[in-house]
Amino acid sequence: MIRQHRYGRSALALEGAQGLAGLAVALGLLLTTRPAGPVIWVLAAAAGLFLVYFGRAVVRSLTRIELDERSIRAWGPLETVIPWDEMRSLRLNHYSTKSDRSGGWMQLDVRGARRSIRVDSSLNDFAALAAAAGREALRRGVPLDERTRLNLDALGIALHG
């Protein structure tokens, strides 16, 4: 059975809008003012970063993650396949935006022999994907570090092994 996951449209729309807005502000200031030499470089760097951020949102909107009994796959512009029997590590990290750790996001990193697939918690049904990857890691003897185990617990995923 193949399970598919995609990034949520609202999160992608927000990311895309933020990237375009930042790009517009940086380019607008470059084109409508006469900034000093160092400021030109700062604005050009900011425009480049916002362009990359926007591009990342576009790539994520075109990507879907699929799991089946044999592998995890990222279909889209940056296509990657990691067979479960080639999984070398699984990490689940939490990145906090508040000092009490109540805000933020999680990122799941599945590493194979040569490649990795990283997804963050804005992916639809992220907890189900993390649970399936965790079960495969346990089934195949891939060790899980303490941080990953704690973050799986925080998602309500209890793995035994």
Q: In the CATH hierarchy, what is the architecture of the largest domain at level 2?
A: Roll
Termini separation: 24 Å
Helix coverage percent = 40-55%
The level 1 CATH classification of the largest domain is Mainly Beta
**Radius of gyration over C-alpha positions, nearest whole angstrom:** 19 Å
What is the number of independent domains?
2
Would you tell me the overall average pLDDT? 91
Q: Main sheet? A: 4 strands, antiparallel
Taken in chain order, the helices and strands follow as EHHEEEEEEHH
Strand line-up of the largest beta sheet = 1-2-3-4
Sequence stretches where pLDDT stays below 50 over 5 or more residues: none
What does this structure look like?
- This protein has helices at residues 9-32, 37-61, 126-139, 146-154; strands at 3-6, 64-67, 71-75, 80-83, 89-96, 104-111, 116-120.
- Helix 1 (9-32) packs antiparallel against helix 2 (37-61).
- The protein folds into 2 domains: 7-61; 65-154, PH-domain like.
- The relative contact order is 0.14.
- A 4-stranded antiparallel β-sheet has the order 1-2-3-4, with helices on one face. The protein has a 3-stranded antiparallel β-sheet with strand order 5-6-7.
- The chain contains 4 helices and 7 strands, in the order βααββββββαα.
- The model has no long low-confidence stretch (mean pLDDT 91).
- The radius of gyration is 19 Å and the shape is elongated.
- By secondary structure, it is α+β, with helices and mostly antiparallel strands.
